[in-house]
Amino acid sequence: MSPIRTRLRLGTAWRRWTILVAVAALAVGVGVVIDAHYAPDAAAKPINPYVQCPQWQEIHPGWPCWGNFPEIEEPTLPGAVPGAPIPTVPTPQPVTPSAPPSTTPASPPAAALTPPPPRPAPDPCKAIVPVPGYVPPALPGHAPNAPCSGSQSPHTPRELIEPYVHPACSIPGIRILSPEQVHDVVTDIVGPLEAELGSDDPYVRSVIDEVNSYNKTCSGGKDVIEDLVWNDTRDQWYNYYRERFLKRNKQAECDGKKRTKDCEGLVAVCYKQGEPVTPPLTAQRDEYITGVNSYIRQQGYPAIRIPVKGTPLERSARRAADQERRNNPAKYPTDPVRFPNGSVAGHVPDTAWSGPLPGKGQPYKWAALDSRLNSSIGGQAGAYPQGYRAIAFVPGTWGATGCEPADKPYPLAVPPLYGP
Where are the beta strands (DSSP E) in 238-388? Predict the structure, then answer.
């Protein structure tokens, strides 16, 4: 090959190499420029460490991905240790729809989807002072509330603690008596004896103990317990009041209000002294006693001894008795067995015991009595001072002090009425 051709080839090769070197240098320069655009400074920090720079550039064109912001505190992930590397957020990838599964996934258990049934809500009308017609709002899932009737009233502190102080008995409708009710039962039976003799007296103490015993065993309400204790202790009661009667002062001054032994107690009913006693007379006496005790219970107050002899009341009472016999002749027959001394219309109670109601001159009722028995009853009233309070009438016998309560206890059906 000639030297000229050889030089031409070498020149061509040199030019080609030079072009390649230039192109390579250009490529390197471009890469340096591109990398310089995206490469961070050594002290720079990513503006958003959770988004890659390409995605950041797409969202914010022209914004830098790194920078130096000393006044901005670098965000820290919740729970991350300070100084630890910040995790990167993976780039979201497009989701390619896939074919539905060939099998149907199992349904969750029915219990997991069914809420528990709501618990019964308390009565809201009892938690407030109800206003008639007010409808309390219902809780979610509960039935609507009915309007408050307004019949409930705020409970007093006494009412709130009552079930704990006096618990109900096992018998429906019966509740343990309060101390006040227990004391009422005791005084209804013994009357003024508790004040006169004290609660340590054997009889008074026995009544107190029996009332408490029946009360603790839920034997009944107040009236039932009173009847039970009375039936158990009435003979003792009679003996105490008989002794009290015998010790009274017949000359005491009474005003219808004093409750001492001299001015309050029993009244004895005797036959005519020296007269023979027959069963018909005994029946008439007992009928009179029962009638007078009923009169006392009905008027709600003891029978009071009032003056009669020589007063207009005595004359009006005689006229009323004569009128009663004329209007009812069959009730007052001539019967020597029943009425050995003749029959009369007797007042029950006797006019002398028709107090204390003002103007009460008419008897509780009329009774057919033997005339001498009737006069004996009226005459015996003189043994009691004016204003004496008769709590009960009982059969009597003649003794050292006059007509006295009989030795044998008289079975009063109920405790006497002592009154105010």
Answer: 264-269, 303-304, 343-348, 365-370
